[in-house]
Specification:
This protein is of the alpha/beta class and 325 residues long. The protein has a single domain, classed as 3-Layer(aba) Sandwich (Carbamate kinase), CATH 3.40.1160.10. 31% of the residues lie in helices and 23% in strands. It has 8 helices and 18 strands. The strands form 4 sheets. The protein has a 9-stranded mixed sheet with strand order 2-16-18-17-15-3-4-12-7, sandwiched between helices. Strands 1, 8, 11, 13 and 14 form a 5-stranded mixed sheet that branches. It has a two-stranded antiparallel sheet with strand order 5-6. A hairpin with a 5-residue loop joins strand 13 and strand 14. The longest helix is centred in the middle third of the chain and has 25 residues. It is globular and about 45 Å long.
């Protein structure tokens, strides 16, 4: 379980119960801008929702994302950004002659691979996002979980299909969060951008799933809203059918969908991150398509337009899937 120091948040609420995208959640499910003044949003960005670092598409996507963050600021909301970068890790590994290996969807991370993970996430992706946000006029600061012991990691224990232990190497979970550094930066008007790398209490670094890192920070900060941006429009009952988007889903409903095989793959850690954030004190959690990501079906659930702007969703527009306990 993630331990943390408490952080003040402003009140907000969410409703439970399954609703299809065509039906708006009740007003209580919307995040009130008035209640959110001087509030906080934690956004998981990157991964599949972001073109490769260094590409023209990457720069355009980050510039558009910066406009979203500016819109949140206009509502009086501070933002913490957590990013992924699995594609860049794999590309860098292959460039260095090392083939990526995955078990149960998790990257096997030996010491050599861990060095590459840090180079790709902290040295490349984080720097590129920070550079793009600053070029757009924001004041972004790049961090990882190791900075000021922001996040303390512990080794992740996995099992194979037969229930036998599997050693993934330096793959970790978040054991503890100290949000002091983030709060100091936020009070100064900065936008913290966090790479999902953290060390244990001995200083050994670990590769952390970006969704998990973001959920842990949202919990520790008692975020008013946790938004997980993806390359899909939200939680779909049928991945091939955008019309099957669920507007809301409770923990019990998600567990049932996972058990029936209706939710799987990369969506599982996203849902688990939302539940982690909510159990830790975040007021709301939502999975939705990211700005400019070209998510399949995004237009079908947004009147044929581009994926919705973050400020609009925070203000009450219906988009993606609202996860509730």
């Amino acid at each position: 379980m993630t331990a943390s120091r408490t952080a003040k948040r402003s009140p907000s609420s969410a409703t439970s119960g399954p609703e299809r995208a065509g039906r708006a959640p009740s007003p209580a499910a919307a995040f009130s801008p008035a209640a959110a003044r001087r509030g906080l949003v934690v956004v998981k960005y990157g991964g599949a929702a972001l073109p490769p670092a260094g590409s023209a598409g990457f720069e355009a996507a980050v510039a558009e994302f910066a406009e979203d963050l500016r819109g949140l600021g206009a509502l009086g909301l501070a933002t913490v950004v957590v990013h992924g970068g699995g594609r860049e890790i794999s590309e860098m590994m292959r460039a260095l002659g090392k083939e990526p290996v995955f078990v149960n969807g998790r990257r096997v991370t030996d010491p050599e691979s861990m060095d590459i993970v840090q180079m790709a996430l902290v040295g490349r992706v984080n720097r590129a996002i920070v550079r793009g946000l600053n070029a757009a006029g924001l004041r972004a600061v790049g961090l990882c979980g190791q900075d000021a012991a922001l996040a303390v990691a512990e080794k992740r224990l996995d099992r194979d299909a037969a229930g036998r232990p599997v050693d993934l190497g330096q793959v970790g979970e978040v054991a503890e969060v100290d949000p002091s550094l983030l709060l100091t930066l936020l009070e100064g008007g900065y936008v913290p951008v966090v790479a999902p790398v953290a060390a244990d209490r001995t200083g050994l670094p670990y590769n952390i799933n970006a969704d998990t890192m973001a959920g842990a920070l949202a919990a520790a900060l008692h975020a008013d809203c946790f938004v997980l941006l993806s390359d899909v429009p939200g939680l779909l009952l049928d991945p091939a059918d955008p019309a099957s988007l669920l507007a809301t889903a409770t923990r019990a409903e998600v567990d049932a969908l996972i058990a029936r095989g209706r939710v799987g793959g990369g969506m599982v850690p996203k849902v688990e991150a939302c539940l982690l954030a909510l159990r830790g004190g975040a007021a709301a959690a939502r999975i939705m398509s990211g700005p400019g990501d070209g998510a399949a079906g995004a237009g079908a659930v947004n009147g044929g337009s581009a994926p919705p702007r973050l400020a609009g969703v925070i203000g009450g527009e219906v988009a993606g899937t609202l996860i509730t306990l």
